Automatic annotation (TrEMBL):
Gene3D superfamilies: Glutaredoxin. GO terms for cellular component: endoplasmic reticulum. SUPFAM superfamilies: Thioredoxin-like. Keywords: Signal. This is Thioredoxin domain-containing protein 12. Pfam families: Thioredoxin_7. It comes from the Eukaryota. It comes from Rhynocoris fuscipes.
Amino acid sequence: MGVGSYILDILSNFYGVKGRNELSSRTEARGLGTHIKWVPLDVGLKEAKERGRPIMVVIHKSGCNACKFKPKIARSSEIARLSSAFIMVNLLDDEELQRDDLMPDGRYVPRIIFLSPYGSVLKTVTNRISKYPEKYFYGSVEELIDSMIQVLKIYPLRNILRLLQ
């Protein structure tokens, strides 16, 4: 194993890449991929603060025709890879009502909102590719990946590396 692989392995462990025993159950994943570690909002807020990681919140409805993006997220290896740098939360049906700030421009679904490690909405991170007026609607995997990368630029890897020293 080379030094680069060793460092990548350490960072993967720090970022929380899931082992087989930590995979999400089908209930927690709700169609968004059991290979991604999904946690409830209250657990995610606590874990994000403790670990200094941003949160990605996916808000969707069980009977939503526009929520056809769920299998796309579940199949995307790039989203799975990037998700290891986030605390991943998905809220179904009325679970979003836990916090008013999760509706910055309306209650449409699906929408994906990013939070700081301290739980505040990152209002500057929106879908900047889409032509839709809803800022937090993502119609493609590419649009979501772009926003995930925006968040990782706000919380760069060098800050994580300092924590390891």
